[in-house]
Amino acid sequence: MASVKTRTDIPKNKIFDVMAEIRAVTIPAPVALGQVILPDAAHTGVAVIATKAVDAAE
């Protein structure tokens, strides 16, 4: 699991749509700090990015 945030603010009426997309995403490790996870979350034009690096499991 990786922590994420939106790159900029999103419209209030899109919060639940963005959260649904975030919950549905699965990405393989490793994940880099700042890596784009969703480039256009809920058609808002706002990217969701990783806020922590996650190493691959050994």
Bin the helical content: 10-25%
Q: What is the mean predicted local confidence, pLDDT?
A: 95
**Which H/E pattern describes the elements?**
EHEE
Largest sheet: 3 strands, antiparallel
Instruction: Quickly count the helices.
Output: 1
Distance between the termini: 16 Å
Structural class: alpha+beta
Approximately what portion of the residues adopt beta-strand conformation? Answer: 15-25%
Overall strand count: 3
What features would you describe in this structure?
The protein is an alpha+beta fold. It has one domain (4-50). It contains one helix and three strands. The protein has one helix at residues 15-24; strands at 4-6, 36-38, 48-50. A three-stranded antiparallel beta sheet has the order 1-3-2, with no helix packed on it.
Task: Write a concise keyword list for the protein shown above.
1 helix; alpha+beta; 58 residues; three-stranded antiparallel sheet; 3 strands; 16% strand
Helices and strands in order, then pairings?
Elements: E1 4-6, H1 15-24, E2 36-38, E3 48-50
